[in-house]
What does this fold into?
Amino acid sequence: MRQEIIENLRSALQKPIEKERVVYIMVELRRLVDKMEEENGSSLPEWDRVKHWCNWAVHTNLTNKEFARGTLEEMEKFIIEHPEDKFHHSDFNHQFFSLGDLRGNLYNMLEQFGLPSDITNIPPWLMFAKYLVEHLKDCPLKKSTGLIREFRFIKKNHIPEAEKYSVDYEVCFEDSGKNFTGSVLRFEREKK
It folds into this structure.
């Protein structure tokens, strides 16, 4: 079964990047991580970042699920440990939405299995990340208790003429007056 998953990934990775294909790749990566963990008899920490993003991509409702609760509780801990005067959005982004970490882990995983890793190169990676985050807009992380109640990607800004693109997010607290927003993906390409 592992070889079948690898071949499915090989085929998908050799085709142009489209939103549906990105989701399919995430599903197959999750299946591969599950198979590897099953064969190993335990979790594989080196694939935690890939598994984290795959979990998110394959679920349609993450309200109060262990994955959503765990992620939001980690965000709460980070915010509590970084009071307002020491809180920086860039640190928060790096801790929780480091697409660079995902890119590096994904590259290592693809290389380990002899799979094409071109999607981790720039500019294909920017398109892959863009489609992944766009897909995740439909799947906010929610929980009913605690300081943070919801995290969601909220909008994309695309200015085709300038080749600018960004995706923003919102963190919603139990006291809705303290919500904050940030940007997780931002890039600009030169017009040709």
User: Anything to note?
Assistant: The mean pLDDT is 84.
